Amino acid sequence: MVDPALGADRQPRQCERSPLRREDDALLRGHAQFVSDLPKGSALHAAFVRSPHAHGRLLAVDLGAAHSAPGVLAVFRASDLPRFDPLPVNPVCPAQPFPNPVLADGTVFYVGQPIAMVLGETPQAAQAAAEQVSVQVQALTPVVGIDQARQAAAIFPHWSSNCVYRQDWSTGRFEQAQRQAQAVVAVQVKTSRLAPTALEPRGLLAHWEGQTLTCYLPSQAPHRARQTLIKMLGIPAEQLHLVCPRVGGAFGGRASLYPEELAVAWAASRLRRSVFWQSSRGEDLISASHGRASVLRAWGAFSVQGRLLALRAELAFDLGSWAPFSALIPGWNAGRILPGPYAVPIIEVRSEGYVTTTAAVGIYRGAGRPEAALVMERLMDEGARRLGLDPLAIRARNLPAPSDHARSSAACPPDQGHRALQLLAQAAEHAQYQTLKSQLEKERAAGGCVGLGINLYVEPCGSGWESARVTALPNGRFLIASGSSSQGQGHDTAFAQIAARALGVSTDQIDVIEADSRITPEGIGALASRSMAIGGSAVLLAAQKLAAMLAQREEATASAPDRGGNAAMALPHEGLSAYEVYTTPAEAWSAGCCIAVVEVDKATGSARLRRVVWIDDCGELINPLLARGQLEGGFSQGFGETFCESIVYDENGQILTGSLLDYALPRADDLVPLEIAHLRHMGVAPPGDRPNPLNLSGVGESGAIAAPAALVNAVADALCANGPVGDIELPLKPETIWRMMQQKH
Q: Which residues fall within 8 angstroms of residue 637, CB to CB, at 6 or more apart?
């Protein structure tokens, strides 16, 4: 692939394109500062009193013992705080407004909801005092899960039901196609509720000095968090400085401001004292935002040739009891991108969200895209089984041909379906599909339980704008100040590569800063795999502008004898800067085709991953090493969603997976080396067709989209001797698979 910042004769060698991450030296040596590593000085430590009930009326909150506890400076409940407006929610579709209280006020709505905040001289003093707060709750009936939410009375006052939003996308009527269909196939997938388990739990240091509040907040959207804090706290913008320190992962769980963070920032501004809060792992599991938690149902009307004549889908999402900023995004994304890469003339898609008396559910790596892929890929496999067709063939028959201008969905551009044909062909070639199928058939004939699953998916990768400023310093170095933010993706390395190529210098001459409101420009942040496509494009444009400015200055300097032709001498004392805001004209779409082989132990139901062939289409690669890391990390999380991860509530709304002893994460030995390649363009979708100057789209969420549908289909294929597997409920734990094997159809 030709890098857009270089000519064809100036392509970098592979080692130049994949330098080691510049961030890693400090991380591996233990020199990187996460929020808990920051010097606290005389900061107070915050601890939260949390609800032990899923739903109930707060009759009394007795703070007396906590107030008098040693080392305690202050204790606050809801009545002590201002009447904050609800935390904002991205209005991608019409929805009922959540109350979103900072501390529970009158009613508790989930186990772990913060009721009171204790500030102590030490974390031990704060926690000991928090345990002395007496809370009386009159229990109310909890509402756990989507089925109960549909039937129960409204949880919130002035709501007519527990339905938060309902959005429809349609072209034609399903019943019309159903009458002409050879087969109507129905599928259902229930996704588990997931915890975005980052390396570090949530935390905030709100440092008060003079008249300035500096908030050190690990965040995916630090500039938005700052604007929210300014508005909620009612303080002048110049009084609030926000810095995002090192972040040990995010996965959607750090995209929103949390009630605890607002409470800590308010306490610091109120007391004119620095306040520090660090969540525990257990607190994060019960009170941080979760992901997925959906019930996906779909019907496909297939012709005798295997063409999907019509699609009907009903997507229901459990949103919990308060709304993070991006709470509506998963349901909106899943609905708008159906039917994915496929050309389906008639679609009826409905997406709904419901409140329940559980922790909030927001975006999690993929945010609706894995759900859409699960629906479509289960339909394709079940359609192939019913009609006696090959799973690869039925997918190919439902993709638009290069001459077909039909759109596969309102959101997905036509060329994505055309590119999917190439993805499918390249994946089959790499896997040696027919040979592989024959090998698996021989194993089955010998008594083995093995299966092959395919997932052909598309992925929109963010929209909007991002900013960058690139400065040539008098000492010969360059400084990139990006409006984006990093949670471990490698922005420092990749942004330096982009600017270095445009400026014609070494990456060693470039420094990168992000997420400091005083020294970086305003920006959106790292969401929806947008960092390189949008943030990187802003860096490229700013670097190109600076290169032109330096060239002009060098010409002027060369013509001045007293300057001696030294361009650096012509720089102003503070350097020469170029600033750019890049706004993408359209979403950049990624796509991929994943083929997985799984072996199931008939005695225990345990599934073992044997092989993964994965062709990714993200356009140009700034750094192939970083891209592969993102793909492998995302796939690992998709594996966890499929086979082991699940937040579980009982019928009383009590969480049963409140520690990592109960919430199972994937391990290194669960995975195999992934056979990853990138799409070879064959004329249908030529390079340069993505709507950004870097000609790329995202990879950050691709793995979490690719894995679940491929792995689920592989398990279903392994169990096909018993007939259709019926409804799927994730995760597919050994017990779950074993019970599926006992079913006779």
A: 251, 365, 666, 703, 704, 707
The model's pLDDT over 322-331, given as tens digits with 9 standing for 90+, comes to 999 999 999 9
Q: CB neighbours of 424 closer than 8 A, spacing ≥ 6?
A: 392, 395, 396, 399, 456, 593
Q: Do domains 35-140+201-247+254-287 and 291-400+416-461+587-742 have the same CATH topology?
A: no
- If you search the block for the tokens 């896997």, which residue do you land on? 431
Q: Give start and end residues of each alpha helix (H) in 644-731.
A: 702-718
Average of per-residue pLDDT values in the chain: 92
- What CATH number was assigned to the domain covering residues 291-400+416-461+587-742? 3.30.365.10
Answer whether 369's CB lies under 8 Å from 333's CB: yes
Given a cut of 80, whether residue 373 has pLDDT beyond it is yes
Q: What are the residue boundaries of the structural domains of the chain, listed by start?
A: 8-32+463-583, 35-140+201-247+254-287, 291-400+416-461+587-742
- CA atoms of 310 and 172, how far apart (whole Å): 9
pLDDT of the residue at 462: 86
Rounded CA-CA distance 116/377 in Å is: 46
Q: 447, 480 in Cβ contact below 8 A?
A: no
The answer to whether the CB of 526 falls within 8 A of the CB of 577 is no
Q: Please state, in angstroms and rounded to a whole number, the distance separating the CA atoms of residues 258 and 614.
A: 36
Burial class (CB in 10 A: 0-12, 13-18, 19+), 445: exposed
Which residues partner with 460 through β-bridges?
A: 589
Average pLDDT over every residue of 46-54: 97
Report the relative pairing of strands 510-514 and 450-460 from DSSP bridges: unpaired
**Considering only CA atoms, which of 600, 595, 593, 594 is closest in space to residue 716?**
600
Q: Indicate whether 738 pLDDT > 90.
A: yes
Its CATH architecture, for the domain 35-140+201-247+254-287, is Alpha-Beta Complex (3.90)
- Please report, to the nearest 10 degrees, the dihedral formed by the alpha carbons of residues 35, 37, 38, 39 taken in order: 150
Residue 677's identity, in one-letter code, is: A
CA angle 719, 724, 725 (to 5 degrees): 65
Please report the pLDDT score of residue 3 as a whole number: 36
pLDDT of residue 680: 74
Cis-peptide, bond into residue 12, ω within 30° of zero: no
More confident residue, 512 or 11: 512
**Lookup result for tokens 């496999």:** 381
| Residue the block writes with tokens 């009630």 | 259
Residue 592 to residues 423, 425, 631, 701: CA-CA distances in angstroms? 6, 11, 11, 11
Residue 128 has pLDDT above 90, yes or no: yes
Helix axes 624-643, 702-718, angle to 10 degrees: 40
Position 505 pLDDT exceeds 70: yes
- Residue 535 to residues 540, 583, 634, Cα–Cα distance (Å): 9, 9, 20
pLDDT classification of 13: cutoffs 50, 70, 90: very low
What does the buried/exposed string (b/e) look like for 564-597 if buried means 16 or more CB atoms within 10 Å of the residue's CB? Answer: eeebeebbeeebbbbbbebebeebbbbbbbbbbb
How many other C-beta atoms are found inside a 10 Å radius of the C-beta of residue 216?
20
Amino acid, single-letter form, for residue 330: P
Query: What percent of the chain lies above the pLDDT cut of 70?
Result: 93
Which of 3-17, 167-181, 669-683 holds the top average pLDDT?
Answer: 167-181
- Residues whose CB falls within 8 Å of the CB of residue 69, separated by 6 or more in sequence, listed in order: 120, 125, 128, 129, 132
How much of the chain exceeds pLDDT 90, in percent?
86
What per-residue confidence (pLDDT) applies to 690?
A: 85
Residue 7 has pLDDT above 50, yes or no: no
CATH of domain 8-32+463-583: 3.30.365.10
Please compute the mean of the pLDDT values over residues 633-660 and round it to a whole number. Answer: 97
